[in-house]
Design goal:
- The chain has one domain: Farnesyl Diphosphate Synthase.
- By secondary structure, the chain is mainly α.
- Helix content is about 65%, strand content about 0%.
């Protein structure tokens, strides 16, 4: 899609993308005020556009060419592509640093190769690039002023990506990607994950449970940073976190079975999780003020990264 959209058209286009591809976020964003809701919706559409350059390309070579072109357009701050142009307008409007955007592009570019993750640190670095960076950008979108919020925003992004990986094992494997670390599943090929025998199924299920418990540590850290957000935004981000955690809970209840059907949270479950979160968390001191320093161990795998904020 090419051309420049008016502000209203840009928001409408972004909302269509969010409603079709990010239903959990679409639900939660209604808790935001209009300005932040529109910005968050546009940010999702922008990041989804960058991600889809890899997943929806007709070939690897086409994707590489497009990603290289997009990287230059990001550095130049202008584009004739509708989605990218509006994303860059949002970057200027919110003062989003270019570093996290380029890290996101680097992360999506890595999916062009056959993926077989070696260990947990490698997986966490990947999750930072494709999702932790989005947490950083969201801080700017929501007018977060405290730099203390940034590590927690990264952690919430990592947690959600770990959940995605556990839910989408088969879908990813069909594209030649095995994000489950070799330290948990050995040298299994992506193809072996699609129709596993009982031994492989048991090993993969155990790995999923392991990663879901790890994700929970990142969710806890992510939610510990809610106090740095504008008050209304705290509820929206909390609800998004709890709904995504709900996907993990569904997988835990199925003992890591990712083959039967896609784990999801139904509308009634979303309503219940939202109500429970919004009526319980505001009663806790951590919702209003910091109660503990960020756990540096959660970012051990990111040592040496230049994290722009």
């Amino acid at each position: 899609m090419s051309g420049i959209l008016s502000p209203n058209e840009a928001v409408k286009h972004a909302d269509t993308v969010l409603a079709s591809k990010g239903r959990s976020f679409h639900w939660a964003r209604h808790l935001l005020g209009q300005k932040h809701a529109e910005r968050a919706t546009r940010l999702y559409a922008f990041c989804r556009y960058l991600d889809d350059l890899t997943d929806e390309a007709s070939s690897t070579s086409v994707a590489r060419t497009k990603l290289a072109s997009v990287r230059e357009e990001i550095l130049n701050g202008k584009s004739r592509d509708t989605s990218l142009s509006d994303g860059l307008a949002l970057v200027r409007e919110c003062g989003i640093p270019v570093g996290p955007i380029l890290d996101l592009v680097r992360g999506t570019s890595s999916d062009l190769e056959r993926v077989c993750v070696g260990d947990l640190p490698e997986l966490i670095r990947y999750c930072y690039r494709v999702a932790g960076t989005v947490g950083l950008m969201m801080c700017r979108v929501l007018d977060v002023e405290s730099h203390s919020a940034f590590p927690h925003a990264i952690d919430l992004g990592i947690a959600m990506q770990l959940t995605n990986i556990c839910r989408d094992v088969v879908e990813d494997a069909s594209m030649g990607r095995r994000y489950l670390p070799a330290t948990l599943v050995g040298d299994l090929t992506p193809e072996e994950l699609i129709h596993p025998d009982s031994v492989v199924r048991s090993k993969v299920s155990a790995a999923i449970l392991n990663l879901l418990h790890l994700a929970d540590e990142y969710y806890k850290s992510g939610e510990a940073g809610l106090c740095y957000l504008p008050v209304r935004a705290r509820g929206a981000i909390l609800v998004a976190s709890r709904i995504y955690r709900g996907i993990g809970t569904a997988l835990l209840d199925r003992e890591g079975d990712c083959w039967s059907n896609r784990a999801m949270v139904s509308a009634p479950q979303k309503a219940f999780l939202s109500f429970t979160a919004l009526t319980s968390q505001p009663l806790k001191r951590s919702f209003w003020s910091p109660t503990a320093a960020h756990c540096a161990e959660l970012h051990a795998a990111l040592e040496g990264f230049t994290i722009s904020t």
